[in-house]
Amino acid sequence: MTRTFPEITPEEATTLGGLGAEDAMAILGHSLAEAVRAAPQTPSRAVVRFGCASIEVEWPVGTRVVESAPAAAPPEPAEDLAAVVAPVVGTFYRAPEPGARPFVEVGDEIEVGTQVGIVEAMKLMNPILAEEAGVVAEIVAGDAESVEYGQPLLLVRPRTEG
Amino acid sequence: MTRTFPEITPEEATTLGGLGAEDAMAILGHSLAEAVRAAPQTPSRAVVRFGCASIEVEWPVGTRVVESAPAAAPPEPAEDLAAVVAPVVGTFYRAPEPGARPFVEVGDEIEVGTQVGIVEAMKLMNPILAEEAGVVAEIVAGDAESVEYGQPLLLVRPRTEG
Amino acid sequence: MSEPPFRKILVANRGEIALRVVRTCREMGIRTVVVHSTADRDSAAVRLADEAVQIGPGAPRKSYLYPAMIIEAALRTGAEAIHPGYGFLSEDPDFAEICDKNGIVFIGPHPDVMARLGDKAAARELMAAAGLPVVPGSAEAVSTPGELVETTKRVGLPVIIKAAAGGGGRGMAVVRDWDELLPAFRTTRATARGVFGDDRVYLERYWENARHIEVQVLADNHGTVLHLGERDCSVQRRHQKLIEESPAPLLPPALRDRLTQAAVRGAAAVGYTGAGTFEFLVEGDEAAFIEVNCRIQVEHPVTEAVTGIDLVREQIRIAAGLPVSLTQDEVRPNGVAIECRVNAEDPRRDFAPCPGLLTEFVPPGGQFVRVDTHAYAGWQVPPYYDSLLAKVIVWAPDRDQAIARMRRALGEFRIDGPGVSTTSELLQDVLAEPVFRAGRHSTALLRK
Amino acid sequence: MSEPPFRKILVANRGEIALRVVRTCREMGIRTVVVHSTADRDSAAVRLADEAVQIGPGAPRKSYLYPAMIIEAALRTGAEAIHPGYGFLSEDPDFAEICDKNGIVFIGPHPDVMARLGDKAAARELMAAAGLPVVPGSAEAVSTPGELVETTKRVGLPVIIKAAAGGGGRGMAVVRDWDELLPAFRTTRATARGVFGDDRVYLERYWENARHIEVQVLADNHGTVLHLGERDCSVQRRHQKLIEESPAPLLPPALRDRLTQAAVRGAAAVGYTGAGTFEFLVEGDEAAFIEVNCRIQVEHPVTEAVTGIDLVREQIRIAAGLPVSLTQDEVRPNGVAIECRVNAEDPRRDFAPCPGLLTEFVPPGGQFVRVDTHAYAGWQVPPYYDSLLAKVIVWAPDRDQAIARMRRALGEFRIDGPGVSTTSELLQDVLAEPVFRAGRHSTALLRK
């Protein structure tokens, strides 16, 4: 009766920093509550962890027998999008040059290492490469927009492993 | 039902990338509350951890099992003693004069208005009268002790009303 | 209210000094941009600034020591000038030059002046040539064991070996015996290479019982060089200043005049501009120049308290080409000021920094007490930076009252948090020490 | 360090002034006893004091206004003197006399002097006799409608009717029309009876556009009477001071001299001792005495900031029979100081006090800013007392810079809590007001 939620490593936690750690944690916490509410039966234990932070709940085993719950369809899992963040302060460009086709569009399949944009800083063009394979879900930074270190540029729905 | 979880080092604790710890804890606490509220049953144990700080709640097993509870003797209620407090700053005396018998002793039955002591302030003898009927349970201020406003002088076990 | 000298200034620092600079900018009607690492996202300076730009992760190399990111942030936000605070890039001539090349005013001396004074052996030569007394030592960096032994013979033991590019008490070793000489030389060079990326070291006579006295100068681009009196920073732990005060207790007036005049002469000789500090060692009637700090100092508030001059304001005005706003005659130090540095360090673990969550943080207040701090209850002290939590500065008409006031102020400071310890008790012990109260202490005070 | 003038002082007050007094006592090496109500059990003054005695419930009548309890606490703890702060029993000659009878030094003027100056009509007579200019008005308390009308005819409308025993802006009414006169008379008397237990009222000419200027004096038992310059307290809301500053802007030097000399002369004439304040109205070149405050004032820090003198320290020294610690020549006011009172009041509900829990409380800090406050995050503002949360005092070399500094300081003050509002925004609005910035405002500023 143990449900596992994806663990996030401290390294990921910091790279997600740009996404807003607060938001991420709120989402995770919400997910826990949602999962508990959605489950036909009280779990024996649930863990949510974000970097060094964790929430952990244990329920006594077998105390509540749910007599009538029909086998409901499993809840749609919360969308787990990965953010590609700005590695430097600079200007984000979606395309290699003005007027050219953007590196990627929403819906594009990308691989690890696919260039998804440029951040120009101190006249240097820093290519932004995907660190995860998947599908571009949303492009959150505007073209030619000023970005800070760690700011999300686009969101990727990671490819599911099977 | 208790498991041990890896300890989080201070180094890991700081990898949350600047998220205010207060905010983090607030968010975590919220999530915990939500999770508990969401479940139809009380958990046996819950832990919230942020770095070195943690909140840990355990629920006694079986407290909410209603149908099988035998008509046990009602639990002894937490002793609800009433304090007689000093109405002024001064010196507390247990007896009307040095060497005389104290107004009351532990175990004495007292009525509303029974004099239980004196607090001398500005050379005025303020009689201390019981405001509740009952039995003297303890005399907490020493004879000739300096007392503040509101300081308990003696404790009374109120007479039960039936 | 007159026009502000700049419309927008970028603060390239963190902690209390970033907040300090933002405060003066606000008072001058100048908008501020604070650049910060991810670890400082919730800092007091970021909260108070008009704009904030996150430039990198917690590690200083990738944020506060990363010139390109800072310049980029300045260009992007339209900042006209950069205030570097102290530490980090504040004394880096290359950074000052990059600012210049990008059309941004660096609030500090000219890069050439900084470069010349930044090499401590060279600075000593320069000041000796300007007629300042210098500690006997190596004329230049010592690079071979032969030079080392020869110089040591000449100046006599004990000696101190220092990194030419060093600062903040790091990269220093005191040698009292001949057989410690070569090992100390090797260690210091290794440290210097590791910490400052420059393994040059120099050597000077070590004064066991010297007092550390420094002179604050202000110099503008119009030929004015003022001094704002001296500070005594003799209470040090491993070359880290703990307590600073002005004026220096028991300093003979003639010697005080010699030091302040030497500083003014030295600053004029190198074409210094901005706020700077000339550091000296004093033992009895002897005094010797050690180095120049080309920036605002941690302890500048004691000078502000006795003179009433906002030093950061003067720095900004000078950088904008304005003249210093007063004359030497108008600088009239009054009373006594003392500063104590309250660090998050654990005295039981040899003063190791102890970052962590501050659950309680109530600084002292009231009459003649100033607190410069970026900390607040609920703040997580990050592990990446120095351990300074707060500077407590008091003023009083005389030194006895100032010490009593400081003891009162430290006594009411409430700081708590899991695992957080501070230097407050050590400071209070020093303030109660008879030799300190008599003003007869030297840098040896905490060496026992 | 010299022997302290007392070994132990009892502080018969609460809030920021109790903390203020405890701070000076600590600096002087004097032990402190703070008496407090149940509502102030967790107050900052109680925390900092050496001893605390709970003397009654939250209601002032049964605690801070209950002489027997305070005396009992003093005798019990062996306090040699009582500092009454401001408000409560600070100007009560009976209380001063009870102290005296019990062998306890009351830190304030002699009871007779307080009694004579406490009756405001009598005080005006006294000062007129000493050659001070007084506002035209009733020579004594006005007790019949006939006297009322006659006096009003003589001084001319508008007039202000004031409780003889009043203070703090209560028991006052301005009358602009004849038909308002009798109703105002009745109301004021009723208020005076209810609030002060004394229905005597007097009447004086009301100056519509006057400035409120007061002179701080210090007088000892050795015949020395000093003045420490003046304060301008013209920014008032319903006779409650909001902003105070020193020196008074645009006050002609000759008029300043007249006022300070009048205060010194008046203090000498009545045999005043301790710290006291002579209040005047000023309109153009005309000036008139209004009253004497026989205690430390809320706004004393502005005088401390420009003179460097700890007024509470002088009060204590004088009460112990010591001479004032400096001469008139040594009093050299420097620069400009401004104080703003940050009250827990709701501007949207006509500035009704709003007690409650402070969830966030981060006072400003940094250069030349002083904060006197007893509040802290997590503290519950009790409903029984005045709404003062904090006094923010700034110093600067000139008034423009002082205003800019105050705006900065108020801007960084973080106060939050469910239901807690403050006067901070109103203060900032006043600071931005052109007429205030020009120093041309009068007590009419907030009357619109």
From TrEMBL, chains A, B:
<dbReference type="InterPro" id="IPR000089">
    <property type="entry name" value="Biotin_lipoyl"/>
</dbReference>
<dbReference type="InterPro" id="IPR001882">
    <property type="entry name" value="Biotin_BS"/>
</dbReference>
<dbReference type="InterPro" id="IPR001249">
    <property type="entry name" value="AcCoA_biotinCC"/>
</dbReference>
<keyword id="KW-0092">Biotin</keyword>
<dbReference type="GO" id="GO:0009317">
    <property type="term" value="C:acetyl-CoA carboxylase complex"/>
</dbReference>
<dbReference type="GO" id="GO:0003989">
    <property type="term" value="F:acetyl-CoA carboxylase activity"/>
</dbReference>
<dbReference type="Pfam" id="PF00364">
    <property type="entry name" value="Biotin_lipoyl"/>
</dbReference>
<keyword id="KW-0275">Fatty acid biosynthesis</keyword>
<comment type="pathway">
    <text>Lipid metabolism; fatty acid biosynthesis.</text>
</comment>
<dbReference type="InterPro" id="IPR050709">
    <property type="entry name" value="Biotin_Carboxyl_Carrier/Decarb"/>
</dbReference>
<dbReference type="InterPro" id="IPR011053">
    <property type="entry name" value="Single_hybrid_motif"/>
</dbReference>
<keyword id="KW-0444">Lipid biosynthesis</keyword>
<dbReference type="GO" id="GO:0006633">
    <property type="term" value="P:fatty acid biosynthetic process"/>
</dbReference>
<feature type="domain" description="Lipoyl-binding">
    <location>
        <begin position="81"/>
        <end position="157"/>
    </location>
</feature>
<protein>
    <recommendedName>
        <fullName>Biotin carboxyl carrier protein of acetyl-CoA carboxylase</fullName>
    </recommendedName>
</protein>
<keyword id="KW-0276">Fatty acid metabolism</keyword>
<comment type="function">
    <text>This protein is a component of the acetyl coenzyme A carboxylase complex; first, biotin carboxylase catalyzes the carboxylation of the carrier protein and then the transcarboxylase transfers the carboxyl group to form malonyl-CoA.</text>
</comment>
<keyword id="KW-0443">Lipid metabolism</keyword>
TrEMBL record, chains C, D:
<comment type="function">
    <text>This protein is a component of the acetyl coenzyme A carboxylase complex; first, biotin carboxylase catalyzes the carboxylation of the carrier protein and then the transcarboxylase transfers the carboxyl group to form malonyl-CoA.</text>
</comment>
<dbReference type="Pfam" id="PF02785">
    <property type="entry name" value="Biotin_carb_C"/>
</dbReference>
<dbReference type="InterPro" id="IPR051602">
    <property type="entry name" value="ACC_Biotin_Carboxylase"/>
</dbReference>
<dbReference type="GO" id="GO:0004075">
    <property type="term" value="F:biotin carboxylase activity"/>
</dbReference>
<dbReference type="InterPro" id="IPR016185">
    <property type="entry name" value="PreATP-grasp_dom_sf"/>
</dbReference>
<dbReference type="InterPro" id="IPR005482">
    <property type="entry name" value="Biotin_COase_C"/>
</dbReference>
<keyword id="KW-0436">Ligase</keyword>
<dbReference type="InterPro" id="IPR011764">
    <property type="entry name" value="Biotin_carboxylation_dom"/>
</dbReference>
<keyword id="KW-0670">Pyruvate</keyword>
<feature type="domain" description="Biotin carboxylation">
    <location>
        <begin position="5"/>
        <end position="448"/>
    </location>
</feature>
<protein>
    <recommendedName>
        <fullName>biotin carboxylase</fullName>
        <ecNumber>6.3.4.14</ecNumber>
    </recommendedName>
</protein>
<keyword id="KW-0547">Nucleotide-binding</keyword>
<dbReference type="GO" id="GO:0046872">
    <property type="term" value="F:metal ion binding"/>
</dbReference>
<dbReference type="InterPro" id="IPR005479">
    <property type="entry name" value="CPAse_ATP-bd"/>
</dbReference>
<keyword id="KW-0092">Biotin</keyword>
<dbReference type="InterPro" id="IPR011761">
    <property type="entry name" value="ATP-grasp"/>
</dbReference>
<dbReference type="InterPro" id="IPR011054">
    <property type="entry name" value="Rudment_hybrid_motif"/>
</dbReference>
<feature type="domain" description="ATP-grasp">
    <location>
        <begin position="124"/>
        <end position="320"/>
    </location>
</feature>
<dbReference type="Pfam" id="PF00289">
    <property type="entry name" value="Biotin_carb_N"/>
</dbReference>
<dbReference type="Pfam" id="PF02786">
    <property type="entry name" value="CPSase_L_D2"/>
</dbReference>
<dbReference type="GO" id="GO:0005524">
    <property type="term" value="F:ATP binding"/>
</dbReference>
<dbReference type="InterPro" id="IPR005481">
    <property type="entry name" value="BC-like_N"/>
</dbReference>
